[in-house]
Amino acid sequence: MGLGNFRWRILLIIVSALLLWQSSKVWLSFAQEKSVIEAQLQDNQPVTLNQKDEGTSQKVHVVVYYEALCPDSRSFFVKQLLPTYQKISHNIRVELIPYGKATTTETEDGYKFMCQHGPPECEANIIHACSINIIKNSSVQLEYITCMIKNNIKPVNIMKTCAEKMNLDYNTILKCSTGDKGKELLAKYGELTNSLSPRVSFIPTVVLDDSSENQARVLKNLLQEVCLHLKVLPEGCTL
Questions:
Q1: Is 237 in a helix, a strand, or coil?
Q2: Side-chain half-sphere CA neighbours of 226 within 13 A
Q3: Of 187, 14, 225, which is closest to residue 111 (Cα–Cα)?
């Protein structure tokens, strides 16, 4: 056997050994992941997959009925809603309904509102309604609303401040909020709020997948309650 042929055979043996070693590692990893999932299924536990698999899991619909000047609404947005969304954004769909315990009167000149915390709240609710209608990106929308609700006592000022902070154009929102469109949007949100069964008794009221049960638990730990609705748990869930 020539020296060249000998070296060629040695090289083939080394390459074959490396390929066999790599394939055994892949098979071992797959077998380990499969055994974990099977064990969870046998114990009736939710199956936990890697972050990359979250897209195939359930998305919980979270509807928040709130008021722009309500302290409890502010606390919920800042401490529960935004942090929960940031942790499991792939598994949650947020819908915001700014109205609360307001009342709507339709006159010849259009809609008029009375709000629980006075005229500034009505103005703020309309700005929120316009913002929700105009900003389609869920993440940007929620961050913007949360920014405003932190200090909504002067609605137009905080609208501009938060927009500038986030590099958003507030002129379209301002035009909506000072015209008929804003009032029409808020009236629509009033209809949605008043159609809830049972009716709203506390603000905020949070509905998870059409259920308003366990409000105390939802308001205290939204992440945990949303995760309980998921069959496949993402990494952001900490039950």
A1: coil
A2: 31
A3: 187
What CA–CA distances, in Å, run from 146 to 16, 19, 100, 158?
A: 58, 53, 16, 11
Query: Per-residue pLDDT tens for 24-53?
Result: 544 444 344 444 334 443 444 444 444 445
Return the beta strands (E) in the chain as ranges. Answer: 47-48, 60-66, 92-98, 103-107, 110-114, 205-208, 232-233
Which residues are within 8 A (CB) of 87 and not within 5 positions of it... i.e. 6 or more apart? Answer: 223, 236, 237
Residue 78, amino acid: V
Token pair, residue 203, equals: 């603000």
Q: Residue 58's pLDDT is what?
A: 86
In 10 A of CB 111, how many CB atoms?
A: 18
Taking the mean position of all CA atoms in its chain, how far away is CA 137? Answer: 11
Comparing C-alpha atoms, which of 152, 170, 151 is closest to residue 160? 170
Hey, what's the torsion of the CAs at 162, 86, 126, 76, to 10 degrees?
Answer: -110
- Does 98 sit behind a cis peptide bond, omega within 30 degrees of 0 on the bond before it? no
DSSP letter string, 96-160: EEE-TT-EEEEETTEEEEE-TT-HHHHHHHHHHHHHHHH---HHHHHHHHHHHHTTTTSHHHHHH
Q: Whole-angstrom Cα distance, residue 141 to residue 197?
A: 27
Which two structure tokens, joined as six digits, stand for 198? 């049972």
Which amino acid type is present at position 107?
T
pLDDT at 14: 62
